[in-house]
């Protein structure tokens, strides 16, 4: 069984000063994946990135709230993380195993940080990692535009670190 893992779709990133590339499409894709997971009875986990006390994303900050554009129905597991990998210093791996998940479908923000780190860690921990090719994003940087960052990570991660699929092709 596969679980859906949604990374950092939180107010401070989605509605912050640097809008993620294709943000509206990403929100639609994540909602569609959550619907597919629910229809199949697959667990849904949402990670929120939390920073240290005194930072803009300190515990309890409104910037860490899951964005209201995601259709949460109450059966999802929302958890906090403090490192780029959703597995580092969290109970995610144990919770996935406890619900019988052998694989994790990864979507969300930001491609070059948390998406990348989580894909690599999932495979290292023995999970079948599936990255939704059109289900992650980031913002432009001073070195590279977001489209290139996403394309680069899709090409780099596919194979050794995860299996790459398009959202419309994935079935739980």
Task: Walk me through this protein's architecture.
There is one protein chain. The protein is an alpha/beta fold. The longest helix has 18 residues. A six-stranded parallel sheet has the order 3-2-1-4-5-6, with helices on both faces. It is globular and about 35 Å long. The protein has one domain: Rossmann fold (3-Layer(aba) Sandwich). This is Isochorismatase family protein.
Count the DSSP helices: 5
How far apart are the first and last residues' alpha carbons, in Å? 7 Å
Strand order across the largest sheet = 3-2-1-4-5-6
Described by the principal axes of the CA atoms, the overall outline is: globular
Main sheet attributes: strand count, strand direction, barrel closure: 6 strands, parallel
Secondary-structure-derived class? alpha/beta
Low-confidence stretches: none
CATH superfamily: Isochorismatase-like
User: Beta-strand percentage?
Assistant: 15-25%
Strand element count: 6
Q: At the first level of CATH, what is the class?
A: Alpha Beta
Give the number of domains. 1
Mean pLDDT comes to 97
Oligomer: single chain
Helix fraction, binned, reads 25-40%
CATH names the topology as Rossmann fold
Radius of gyration from CA coordinates: 15 Å
